[in-house]
Amino acid sequence: MPRNMSFFITTAQVRDKSKVITRRLGWLFAKPGDIVNACVKCQGLKKGEKIEKICQIKIISIHREPLYCVDDKEVSREGFIGKTAEWFVEMFCKANKCTESTIVTRIEFKYIR
What we know:
3 helices
């Protein structure tokens, strides 16, 4: 059974399929070929709320790198067309309470369902 991955901040980008890369603080167990349920939200659900699955994705590649390695092209592939790497790093750090030198897991994926 596929694991669930939250795309709460980037739900719109997953729905319109402009996002083909995601960066995570965890997901050290993931490997190419894994099938994942892309969901709106997976944790912190209120009583009565259910996980809303958006689609399924397949991991193509995965590696670890410092967050500051992101460039403008990668930001576009994250689904943020027209935004800068500086903007993305600031947004990611604020959302994840980390710094630009934090080692993150870069996951490239494709949409399958």
